[in-house]
């Protein structure tokens, strides 16, 4: 598994990371034993970057990930988590509260470290600040910069699917990395027009997330049971996904192989893709997608020209 640097921060990530929204029981309920098996499968195959957030299962993802990683030396892996949502209460009374204040940032990271059972966070992202961008830029980012400069976090950035928000942070803040959710994919490659060139020009790394658009691109033959951006696909989206499967096949790829190859193509600045899994078998399949045998140049060119 190849490692790539996030600018000059000293933080490196593996070319594929494990997204852990599923550890918060997204779509399907898991047990700790399931999470342990998923993390073990990722570790065995070289994945060393694990991405989580308080938002995922009201802290459940962080707690489960932390337990699964305890058998490993802390210096051997990278953890990224997010700020912007404070988890208040516990159990059935737990709830999320938006908070992009300086105190909210430090409190969120302290709580994340406690849930994860680790002494530091390697990458801290501002999470989905779309409707709170002014507040996050004015308050959360200065605090994250302070924490990074003090060595309390390794790298800082922002993660969302909203491209206008990502561009604002890249242009107005000292971010090291952005996590682009669902906008660097076969079905939605809108990040290519402005965000990718802007990040390359400014030396900002990109981690692609949601590269299967919530699952529809993870199937070789997409169907109505798939998810697209966390919802059932429309007829138009399903038609486009099937068209992409045909294009992929023409260039020697399955649709999931093509999805990974396409998302990784703009390198630099893309340094990694974060892919979730709800079983050890899915992890094995996802890592195998890093080594397709198709024509990536031909795929990339045709995807950009075939469907508007």
Describe the overall structure.
The chain is of the alpha/beta class. The protein has one domain: NADP-dependent oxidoreductase domain (TIM Barrel, Alpha-Beta Barrel), CATH 3.20.20. It has ten helices and twelve strands. The protein has helices at 32-44, 60-69, 102-116, 133-149, 163-172, 195-202, 235-250, 255-264, 280-288, 296-306; strands at residues 3-5, 12-14, 16-19, 49-51, 78-83, 85-88, 95-98, 121-127, 153-160, 177-181, 205-209, 270-276. The strands form three sheets. It has an eight-stranded parallel barrel with strand order 3-4-5-8-9-10-11-12, surrounded by six helices. Helix 3 (102-116) crosses helix 4. It starts with a strand and ends with a helix. The model has no long low-confidence stretch (mean pLDDT 96).
CATH topology: TIM Barrel
Give the N-to-C terminal Cα separation: 34 Å
Q: Strand-and-helix sequence, N→C? A: EEEHEHEEEHEHEHEHEHHEHH
- Major beta sheet summary: 8 strands, parallel, barrel
Mean pLDDT: 96
Q: Report the CATH architecture.
A: Alpha-Beta Barrel
Rg is: 18 Å
Q: State the CATH superfamily name.
A: NADP-dependent oxidoreductase domain
């Amino acid at each position: 598994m190849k490692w790539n640097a996030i600018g000059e921060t000293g933080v490196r990530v593996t070319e594929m990371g494990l997204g852990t929204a599923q550890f918060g029981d997204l779509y399907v309920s898991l047990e700790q034993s399931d999470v342990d098996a998923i993390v073990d499968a990722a570790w065995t195959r070289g994945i060393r970057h694990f991405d989580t957030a308080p938002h995922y299962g009201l802290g459940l993802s962080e707690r489960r990930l932390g337990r699964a990683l305890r058998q490993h030396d802390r210096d051997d892996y990278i953890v990224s988590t997010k700020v912007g949502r404070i988890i208040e209460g516990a159990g059935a009374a737990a709830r999320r509260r938006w908070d992009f204040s300086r105190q909210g940032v430090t409190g969120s990271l302290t709580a994340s470290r406690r849930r994860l059972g680790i002494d530091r966070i390697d990458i801290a992202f501002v999470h989905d600040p779309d409707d709170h961008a002014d507040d996050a830029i004015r308050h959360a980012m200065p605090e994250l910069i302070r924490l990074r400069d003090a060595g309390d976090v390794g790298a800082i950035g922002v993660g969302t699917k909203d491209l206008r928000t990502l561009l604002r942070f890249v242009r107005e803040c000292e971010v090291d990395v952005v996590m682009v959710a669902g906008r660097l994919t076969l079905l939605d490659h809108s990040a290519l027009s402005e965000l990718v060139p802007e990040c390359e020009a400014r030396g900002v790394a990109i981690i692609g997330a949601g590269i299967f658009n919530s699952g529809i691109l993870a199937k070789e033959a997409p169907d109505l049971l798939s998810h697209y951006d966390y919802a059932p696909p429309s007829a138009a989206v399903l038609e486009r996904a099937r068209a992409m499967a045909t294009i992929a096949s023409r260039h020697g790829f399955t649709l999931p192989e093509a999805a990974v190859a396409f998302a990784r193509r703009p390198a630099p600045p893309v340094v990694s893709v974060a892919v979730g899994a709800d079983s050890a078998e899915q992890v094995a399949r996802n890592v195998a997608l890093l080594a397709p045998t198709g024509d990536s140049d031909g795929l990339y060119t045709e995807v950009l020209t075939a469907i508007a």
